[in-house]
């Protein structure tokens, strides 16, 4: 280490909002005994030389909680505020560790605004962020952070998980080209105290990280840390600081970073299957995202300046903004990576006949209570939305005049064939679809525009059918052998299911033998399959959990595009402690296809855009597009955004796998996790899946079912028009007058946004994601058109200022 001049030591504990206790218990620990311990260590080291007194780093959300939540005592809040002002209590820019691929773009941006609020209060803007435990994150993360002014990201993986094969330190390039200095720690939350012998840079980051909610280091540990560094690297400067100090030190000599490798790929999350353990809540979250944006836009439109004497600065939108902000925060808390208590330390697993008896015991009830605590975030988000919705009047009905768009749509709306078609056939001007109620699937789907038959008749699985799997001990063991980095005792518990029956067999079953009904109504014609029962594949008659399955199939139009709509309903699902999954297979008659995934903030090709060692079996996405030449088919997830290719992907891991098989699996639910997530599912469920054949590449970005595009909101068309972007948010400026509009380029293409100021706009600015103005666009007159370039998958935030009446 001849060139090493500085070691920056950062002290943290891993924040789990749950796992070691229920969420409210965890926060009482953080703001009570843990904070008291932090204060004692700080007091014990306050006379150390400058830069060597104990400092403590928290994610932004728990620090804000400590400083402002009513449950925290006034003395503790005042002490915390003093420590922040003294520069000993730090926060980083990210709110807490998230399942990033599941969260919406706007949820992630609002999460950054938690740090923004602290920065505005204390006058310091963190330049670093951290995510811990979760091994993989979606490609938009460097774009989000870089566009928020962050310079450095540290990722510390769970020490049991196989991790993406990336360099230790690299530039992570987001889909829009933004680059972020990123350090990846495989096998641990933090980093060693001293760099390896081949470390080429002049500064080292030592992240001294305690485990899950454990708390601070002792004065004796601090002395040992200093002694280890001073003995291992004599004469090197030691700084007990914060994450941003590392990047700032390196950037004093930026030339040393010139040869750093660049990673321009997705670090797909190998834990993402976990969202399948909350199928009802995930569906509600996805629906609420669109409703929040629509409500926000309606509030902005209601008192748009200059319209029917409206005031100048969006008073209604300002009134609902705190409620909408709070609802987004609850959605983000649902996306936090802890989805329940640590199973191994809470219950002793019981399989077989004793399972229902065990569920009545206190440990089992406490475990299920932790799952309800996670679901309660969605309940609170919906309550906040309803409170906000009561403040916003119903919009006035628009004149019912036929527009050119109406004429175009009339030409492509489905015209259902005469009722003389067979009862198992649904036909319109776009499709001919035939079902087999005995096998429980679609046996023919012809796209009339191309004449292509999409159903692979040679496949062993029903196209669009309901598949149910129970996994064996061998499935679990093989997965842990393939995936595990360090096969420690806790890993076996957390990624397996201790005590799982050794004689268990993998069972695959399909819902078969439906009753068929063809229903005609003003809304269209539906093929309704009801009363389906699970039938196992192969010999024998295994016992399967009780559940009744129904499927509804219809055709419709989404925007300009005809589509097939499928609704799956399950009633009376029985809870079992074995690992299970439900998926819908779509075996497609297309050879050697290519695939695209529409996920949070990017469109990726799973054969090219995913780092080796990340998830190559299962992805969180709004849609999956399969194509060959001029033929294309999209499977769109309305409720559960999990997809597999060629295999359902549960208990499967191959670090270098490239999917090639044209079988798409739309996931409905699973209980793969061995800890920290629901271990059994029961009751009634509903999922919606859409098929959209022959989508052209240029329109893929518009297929998200949850977020309107600019053209849907005429109030903004006065200013923004002919834009290829998607509105993420429109709300009053938080720290002054004006309107913030956030737009995402969702098609992966270079484009432009055209802005016409109009009669009331006085200024237009571009901002960073913290909504700080960067550049003002000048215009000669109010009708001048401003041309703003958009890069693929860029997030553009505009501040629009309006003329104000003289006071």
Q: What does this protein structure show overall?
A:
- With 807 residues, the protein is an alpha+beta fold.
- Helices cover 25% and strands 28% of the residues.
- The chain is built from 15 helices and 37 strands.
- The strands form 7 sheets. The protein has a 15-stranded antiparallel sheet that branches.
- α8 runs parallel beside α11 (362-389).
- It starts with 5 loop residues before the first strand and ends in a 5-residue tail after the last strand.
Give the low-confidence spans: 705-713
- The shape, in one word, is globular
* Strand coverage percent: 25-35%
User: How widely separated are the two ends?
Assistant: 66 Å
Number of distinct helices: 15
Mean pLDDT: 91
Largest sheet composition: 15 strands, antiparallel
- Helix/strand class: alpha+beta
Radius of gyration: 27 Å
Give the helix level as a range of percent. Answer: 10-25%
Strands, count: 37
List keywords for this structure.
globular, 807 residues, alpha+beta, 5-stranded mixed sheet
Describe the structure in brief.
By secondary structure, the chain is an alpha+beta fold. The chain contains 15 helices and 37 strands.
Layout of SSEs?
Layout lengths: L5 E8 L9 H22 L11 E3 L1 H9 L5 H12 L3 E3 L13 H18 L5 E6 L6 H7 L5 E6 L11 E5 L5 E7 L17 E8 L8 H14 L4 E4 L2 H8 L11 E2 L15 H24 L12 H21 L19 H4 L3 H28 L14 H9 L12 E3 L3 E6 L4 E7 L4 E2 L13 E4 L2 H11 L5 H7 L11 E6 L2 E7 L2 E13 L11 E11 L2 E13 L6 E8 L6 E6 L2 E3 L13 E3 L2 E6 L2 E7 L4 E4 L17 E8 L12 E11 L20 H4 L2 E2 L3 E8 L6 E7 L5 E5 L5 E7 L5 E5 L8 E5 L4 E8 L5
Parallel strand pairs: 1-8, 1-9, 2-3, 4-5, 5-7, 6-10
Antiparallel strand pairs: 6-7, 11-12, 12-13, 13-14, 15-16, 15-21, 16-18, 17-18, 18-19, 19-20, 20-29, 21-28, 22-23, 22-25, 24-27, 25-26, 26-29, 27-28, 30-33, 31-32, 32-37, 33-36, 34-35, 34-37
Helix pairs in contact: 4-9, 8-9, 8-11, 9-11
